[in-house]
Amino acid sequence: MPIQTRRLSHALGAEITGIDLREPLSDATFRQINDIFLEHGVLLFRGQALTYAGQDAALHSVVRYAKVGAEIRYNSPEEFQAFIRTEVTKWAKVIRAAGVSVEAR
């Protein structure tokens, strides 16, 4: 199954499906996910059934992302939603203060 992306809010976040984090990521898949991360800032991998046996591959992926500056968090959907709301509020103030506007493509 190819990787699918769904925007979580207008300002921040994307959900990625079609990937099993229990499996090692190829370099191409890592680059694809990293590009999505750079575009959306926050990634959600919902429903990953990480077992003790599958944690090695997942940990390897987490370490790769930490090396490029990503902050890894494990939390519930409700905690993630609260995090997104906080980030949108925080960055909206910065964007307004800087006078940044969105241009249509």
Structural account:
- The protein has helices at residues 27-40, 55-67, 77-98, and strands spanning 4-7, 14-17, 43-44.
- The protein has a domain at 4-74.
- The protein has a 3-stranded mixed β-sheet with strand order 1-2-3.
- The chain has 3 helices and 3 strands.
- The protein is globular and about 45 Å long.
- The longest helix is centred in the last third of the chain and has 22 residues, at 77-98.
- It has 105 residues and is mostly helical.
Features:
globular; mainly alpha; 105 residues; three-stranded mixed beta sheet
What does the secondary structure layout of this molecule look like, with pairings?
Blueprint: E1 4-7, E2 14-17, H1 27-40, E3 43-44, H2 55-67, H3 77-98
Parallel strand pairs: 2-3
Antiparallel strand pairs: 1-2
Short summary of the structure?
Helices cover 47% and strands 10% of the residues. It is mainly alpha-helical and 105 residues long.
